[in-house]
Automatic annotation (TrEMBL):
Residues 145-204 form the MATH domain. Transmembrane segments: none annotated. It comes from Perkinsus olseni. This is MATH domain-containing protein.
Amino acid sequence: EQLKVCPKNVSIWSPEFSASGIRNMQLEFFPQGRETATLDGFCSVFFWCPEGTNIKYQLFVGNHYRAPDEDTYDSRMGHGHSNFCLLDAEIDHAADSVTVGVDIVDVSRVYEMGRGEIKVHRLSLNSLVRREVLVVENRDVSLVEWKISKISRRLAAAPRGASLYSPIFTAAGIHDMLLEFYPNGNANTKKDGYCSLYLRCPEGTQIVVTLIVGSYRKGPIMAKFDGSAGKGLPEFCELAEQINKDEDSIVVGLELKNAAPGTDGGSKKTVLRLESGQSFQQ
């Protein structure tokens, strides 16, 4: 009810919180969008940090993630997105609630040291350990499936060029992987009804990968990542033919041919499923 009666350009603030050694962080959420929002029904989200913070993070509302952002805070202020996502698609109507959050990927602080500066990167010990544990736990993962629910609403609301991002995941010994999906295609898509799909990996990664939307597959192809740009196709397939109409969902994913270093590359296949901001193996 609070979301429905909240007018445009009025925000809801989270309590202040601390994470990764940084205090006084806060999320600002505009249920009906900030004044600068241009898409009807889209909410706005901003992440506030203290002066001197340099942070890489991934904002999410419900199951909708944005690509990781990296920002430097010259003063205490908010960084984020005015046209974040279609809010109605992310509301848990049974619980009459929506979850707004942030995944912190990396943090650094700039400190004045006499005549110069020093930049210190720091994550909590638990975060560092968890990151390395995921690399080990998911080294046998060769198939990743990302289920996107309420796809019909997303298609209707998202213009061409609007993207969905998976949570960051680890597979086959590779950390910080990310799927980038455009339900209505991107700026390079020429055919109506076609979707676009890309994979992002850390610089220097080289893999043999098959990209998947529903039952449609493209690959295997050799992909080498030499920057932040993703590898994929602007005209991947006709999306309507791949939607699970009973569940109003689509499964997007990838299959990796490479074995992680130290594995035997045998027939064992572990599936990593991404859904509702969480991941689990089968």
